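User: For a benchmark we're assembling, each entry needs the component sequences followed by a predicted structure for the full assembly. Here are entry 17's components. Please fill in the structure.
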Amino acid sequence: MPQFCDVGVPVPLDAVFTYRIPENSPPPCVGGRVIVPFREKRLCGVVTELHDREPKFQVRRLSQVLDSTPALTPELMQLGRWIAQYYIAPIGEVFRTMLPLSAEFRRVIGYHITDKGIAALHAAASAGSSLRSQKDREHQMLEYVALNRLADGEVVRETTLRSASKATKSVLQSMLRKKWIARDDLSDLRDASRTVPTAILKVVTGKLNGNQQKIVAYLRSLEGQRARVEALRELPVPRTTLQTLVRRGIVELGEEPATFRVSGLKPRKLEFLFTPAQRMALDTIIGAVDERKFLPMLLHGVTGSGKTAVYLAAMQAVLAKGRSALLLVPEIGLTPAVAADLHQVFGGEVAILHSGLSDDERAEQWKRIRNGESHIVVGTRSAIFAPLPDLSLIVVDEEHDHSYKQEEMPRYHARDVAVMRAKMCYAAVILGSATPSLETYHNAVQGKYRLLKLPERIEKRPLPEVEILDMREEFHHTHKDDVLSRRLVAEIGERLARQEQVMVLLNRRGYSAFVLCRECGESVQCRNCAIAMTYHKREHGLMCHYCGFARPAPRTCPKCGSEYVQYLGAGAEKLEYILHGLFPQARIARLDRDTVRGREDFERMLSALHAGEIDLLVGTQMIAKGHDVANVTLVGVVGSDAALSFPDFRAAERTFQLLTQDAGRAGRGDTPGKVVLQTFFPDHYAIQFAAAHDYRGFYEKEIRFRSWMHYPPFDGVSNVLVRSHKLEEALAWSGILGKWFHATKLDRVRVMGPAAAAIVRLKTEYRYHFLLKSRSREHMNAVLCAMLQHAAQQKIPRNNLVVDVDALSLI
Ligand SMILES: [Zn+2]
Ligand SMILES: [Zn+2]
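Assistant: Structure for entry 17:
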């Protein structure tokens, strides 16, 4: 057996660490998890190499081997290495992101007696002190630890110790302080399989009362399937009713493995009647799967063109061949309704991974995938690391969505990782969108990606008519800065009179965007961030949308004490209020992060809309992401052009995407839809092309601008952020790096900065940044690595430096 192993440890250091393998230890394996001592802690890392090269320095022993077979397959190890290198992220942090480590990992604390403790015990015994006294609780415990040391491999578990000797935490703390005992970490892998209680209907005999009938009716509706007892508890009947039914033998209880809870919603009808364009796209995809070759494809389909049906059919084809497929969706896209659809199509073969799962649920889904029990995985960003065997197809839905970029270490982009993973395992990969990112479309134009087009909506439904409404003109006539134009109000009134549904979208939460003092001209800023706070009427308070800090709404200016404070700019909350005033009869609801806390809220609101229980839905862009509501015939878009004035080279692209998706909500049923787009920039090309449903036109114009300005997809852009709670440190460190960039001869890399970040203070940290541009990935990478080395020599802590390769957010 090799004597040493290198381990990727989850710490912000760009290195692996060597440990000695103890002789009596079970053999570790590459890709398997081990517990290792690191400084004062014990951490769970992943073995990257086994070898016999003895390092020149003192090597510690690894504490425990957790896996006898790799938790990360060779393919995933290779992918992890690529991520670490490409995104300049510590390999241990990358592995931690790839594995649900904490989930299968149980923290167990134990104690053993020290030499000092033994001496104390001897002293107490020879002094003949009574072990009964209150003070000597510690000695009792010490004795217990000492006795058990002989019995049970030196270490006593904390839980055992505390129940056996009735020790309190403070007694333990005191003993630790005296160094009589020492703490051990006995962390262990636990079996992730959990079960939940279920109930099933047997034979119905005798009379049932009303409550009993409710339970029986529910169980009957499941047609022989087991129900979760948890679900029965939600029925409006006393708890004892179920017990009575069990006693009478009508219902039988049992257990089944806990799996993802499918929504109670009825799945929608899936359309598999393909248009010729869908058929062609599907044939290309299945052809690539059959040939087992790496083929990246862009599925560019207008809103409502049936992209999802193509994905599902392709995944079904893969499953039929006994191979695996993976579908990535944006954070908000994976609602219970979508999950229910997938269960209907794929049954038990589908595993679902998203950020709303508990650790246990995630570990269990992971285990099913690893054991080959599910060949279809659907999930958000990190599902790209699902350990699927024989992966043949990866689909990235809404590939332009920014939730695919992880905005913490490691800052990977799941779409780009998907393409790399597909390349490594000879799989087909589909990037789908109605508004592809410039990067992806450029790759398609260049012939790097195969372009598959769905130019028409299904059932030949027309794209909605978009009317651009010039808000400057509106002001000219009314001399008021109303949120809603007279035209939009009139259109809404018409639809409501015809009992059609309306959506009004405004990409801003809260009531008023900011609070301004008329005397000193200051807006009320967050205590922790250099950002104006937003007024929320319901809470009658101000809130920071970046860090969550809240304070009561001020009567007077916090700065100068003036009473002339004004609330300016409208958010979704105010819009709802205005609409209530205009249409008091209408049933109005608001959908944003203030009214929707979780997935269930979201689902409830959407199904109310589906059921026609809402006439008018007001909301932020949360609504706009890919949800079909058949009867919505009018979409009003308010203030979605605000982003155009942001200092961000992606502003036009974002606005175009947003407006196209907004417009795409209208007219997905049998009635043609209309969109009224209010804007202060009616001539801007992003708005003109969005109104004309002309993606190609927008692309042609935007790509020229990117080329002139050396922005992606031509040059790569990386952001280096220097941050600290102390202003002096942030300034000093960015100064050190600035000098280094200046003094170093940079090959084919341009550096701008240091400059104050767009938000110079965020969550109490001061922030300065550099922007690096280069046409060559290798050169950019080399410069960033050299910069990190210099920073380490200059004792700039790694945690205070953020290196964001292919940065999307430049705030
Ligand atoms: Zn003031
Ligand atoms: Zn804040």
